[in-house]
Amino acid sequence: MKKYIMTVVLLVMVTIISGCAVNADATPQITYPKLNELTDTDEEPYRFEIETVTEPLEEPGIEEREASYVVDGGAEWIYAKTQDGTTGTKTTKYKNIYNKKDELLSRVEIPDAVEIADTTPTVYEGGQKAQVDAYYRASRITRYGVDCNGCNMGANGRGSTALGIGVGLDEVRQSDGTWRKGLTYDGYYIIATSAAIPFGTIVEISNHTVSGAGITPGVPFQAIVADRGGAITGSKIDLYAGSEHNMLMSQGGMQSADVRIVGMNGI
């Protein structure tokens, strides 16, 4: 009887061991999906992005500096632009977080990532050559006429400027050769300056008290440099008035004014 029971137990054990071996061989191998095979539900639900924002600072102002030196052919009292101004900027970086629908969830400034570019001024410096947009303060404006001492007025009451513009007591020869009543050449009044301002330079004169012959005190007017004068040195200006007896100027004829160069070679 014992022998029979032992045989049965051995048969059961063999059966169990055999069954385990069969089940082990039948177990499927686990495989993981590749990255490009992931579905939306498997992907990271958030997206990060660095945003850079640059904003302008204040507009550049104008800075006027006295002459540190005088350029060749220039004058200490002539101011011209020597530096273009630049508008400063502030650059800030942010870390943005978006969801799957590309909706912004968070926007946080990144610490210590701000960059500042300073604004620089537009610089006008003395000691420059005459050029468009250059300016100066005329220390004095006087008036002269074709009948001045040393002027070349003929018996017909006419003469000529150093630039060759025909002038008379109350008339001026225009660029087309015709004589016209008045004191302007092609719409410009005639002035004498120092050699620092070349012949043919067109200037606008403002902040003055000149009165008469179509000029109103305080109202800017334009003139052409067409003459020189022994007493016209530095920033002085002599305005053609037709005749020495034509009191074109108010207040005795001596005054200052602002002068800006608006054109060159006007003839």
Describe this structure in words.
This protein is mainly β and 267 residues long. Helix content is 9%, strand content 35%. It is built from 1 helix and 19 strands. The longest helix is centred in the N-terminal third of the chain and has 25 residues, at 2-26. The relative contact order is 0.15.
**pLDDT averaged over residues:** 85
How is the main sheet built?
8 strands, mixed
Strand content: 25-35%
Give the count of helical stretches.
1
Task: Give Rg in angstroms.
Answer: 45 Å
Structural class: mainly beta
* Annotation, overall tally of beta strands: 19
**Series of H and E elements:** HEEEEEEEEEEEEEEEEEEE
Backbone shape: elongated
Helix content: under 10%
Comma- or semicolon-separated keywords:
9% helix, single chain, mainly beta, four-stranded antiparallel sheet, 1 helix
Helix and strand topology:
Layout: H1 2-26, E1 46-56, E2 62-65, E3 80-83, E4 89-99, E5 104-109, E6 115-117, E7 122-125, E8 135-138, E9 141-144, E10 158-160, E11 166-168, E12 171-173, E13 179-181, E14 184-185, E15 188-192, E16 202-206, E17 221-227, E18 237-240, E19 257-263
Parallel strand pairs: 2-7, 9-18, 15-17
Antiparallel strand pairs: 1-4, 3-7, 4-5, 4-6, 8-19, 10-11, 12-13, 14-15, 15-18, 16-17, 16-19
